[in-house]
Amino acid sequence: MPELPEVEALSAFLAEHLVGRQIGRVYAVAVNVLKTYDPPVTALQGCTVSAVGRRGKFLVVTAGDLHLVVHLARAGWLRWQQKLSAEPPRPGKGPLALRVALADPSPDAAGFDLTEAGTQKRLAVYCVADPAEVPGIARLGPDPLAADFTEESLAALLRAEKRQLKGVLRDQSVLAGIGNAYSDEILHAAKLSPFKLAAKLTGTELATLYGAIGATLREAVERSRGLAAGELKAEKKTGLRVHGRAGLPCPVCGDTIREVSFADSALQYCPTCQTGGKVLADRRMSRLLK
């Protein structure tokens, strides 16, 4: 799933290629991706793009008085197209969900496609007058890269949290933009167990976690800066130290990276770096062995 760094890079890439360009046609190939219908997404046709930005994991393209808001979910992606067929795309079983074609295509800019792989269709597209009309954006917590997000801000968010750190970091209503991958990376950098209760952090642990959040996300944004949309997925994988690397050696201490599996996701961690050498119970495997 694209998280804050990838969506930030996508917004920068699109801003470079879209701002000042007029939208020609919008094709909703898979109608189920549209979560709003008034105004219709076709109302963007003829509008000039004035800005592209990010709200948490949401991509926001502003054109005229409207905003095209996109949440790529787990399997969605944006594919920049230098050439598009003159024929409208036909609905079918392929991954194409929505196409935006520019009115004035150039050799390096014809438009973009939103695609989604797999059978679970969660890609979401909104056409709204105000991004705050999107429920997911209205619920967002503070952006961890915002200038006004301080250690005191984090302390206030965690003070009453009775949940484990892993779940808190992934909760978009607590912090906007952090998902499964970067929560693993942040906790590894902070040397904290994913199962530690958020409200039980000491002052030193809180300071370390705050530093790890900023450093991990900023490093990932910098690695992605300037990359084309099609290169971001590969870059994300190469930059991860523990997430998705179960069974491999920890790049810090050399211990084997372990995994805890859940119904629809998994976390990875280093026992030596994060849990004092303790191997956390894999709850899904424990149930299977009963």
TrEMBL record:
<dbReference type="InterPro" id="IPR015886">
    <property type="entry name" value="H2TH_FPG"/>
</dbReference>
<keyword id="KW-0456">Lyase</keyword>
<dbReference type="GO" id="GO:0003906">
    <property type="term" value="F:DNA-(apurinic or apyrimidinic site) endonuclease activity"/>
</dbReference>
<feature type="domain" description="Formamidopyrimidine-DNA glycosylase catalytic">
    <location>
        <begin position="2"/>
        <end position="93"/>
    </location>
</feature>
<protein>
    <submittedName>
        <fullName>Endonuclease VIII</fullName>
    </submittedName>
</protein>
<dbReference type="GO" id="GO:0034039">
    <property type="term" value="F:8-oxo-7,8-dihydroguanine DNA N-glycosylase activity"/>
</dbReference>
<keyword id="KW-0255">Endonuclease</keyword>
<keyword id="KW-0479">Metal-binding</keyword>
<dbReference type="GO" id="GO:0006284">
    <property type="term" value="P:base-excision repair"/>
</dbReference>
<keyword id="KW-0238">DNA-binding</keyword>
<dbReference type="Pfam" id="PF06827">
    <property type="entry name" value="zf-FPG_IleRS"/>
</dbReference>
<comment type="similarity">
    <text>Belongs to the FPG family.</text>
</comment>
<keyword id="KW-0378">Hydrolase</keyword>
<dbReference type="Pfam" id="PF06831">
    <property type="entry name" value="H2TH"/>
</dbReference>
<keyword id="KW-0862">Zinc</keyword>
<dbReference type="GO" id="GO:0016829">
    <property type="term" value="F:lyase activity"/>
</dbReference>
<keyword id="KW-0326">Glycosidase</keyword>
<dbReference type="InterPro" id="IPR010663">
    <property type="entry name" value="Znf_FPG/IleRS"/>
</dbReference>
<keyword id="KW-0540">Nuclease</keyword>
<dbReference type="Pfam" id="PF01149">
    <property type="entry name" value="Fapy_DNA_glyco"/>
</dbReference>
<dbReference type="InterPro" id="IPR035937">
    <property type="entry name" value="FPG_N"/>
</dbReference>
<feature type="domain" description="FPG-type">
    <location>
        <begin position="241"/>
        <end position="275"/>
    </location>
</feature>
<dbReference type="GO" id="GO:0003684">
    <property type="term" value="F:damaged DNA binding"/>
</dbReference>
<keyword id="KW-0227">DNA damage</keyword>
<keyword id="KW-0234">DNA repair</keyword>
<dbReference type="InterPro" id="IPR000214">
    <property type="entry name" value="Znf_DNA_glyclase/AP_lyase"/>
</dbReference>
<keyword id="KW-0863">Zinc-finger</keyword>
<dbReference type="InterPro" id="IPR012319">
    <property type="entry name" value="FPG_cat"/>
</dbReference>
<dbReference type="GO" id="GO:0008270">
    <property type="term" value="F:zinc ion binding"/>
</dbReference>
<keyword id="KW-0511">Multifunctional enzyme</keyword>
<dbReference type="InterPro" id="IPR010979">
    <property type="entry name" value="Ribosomal_uS13-like_H2TH"/>
</dbReference>
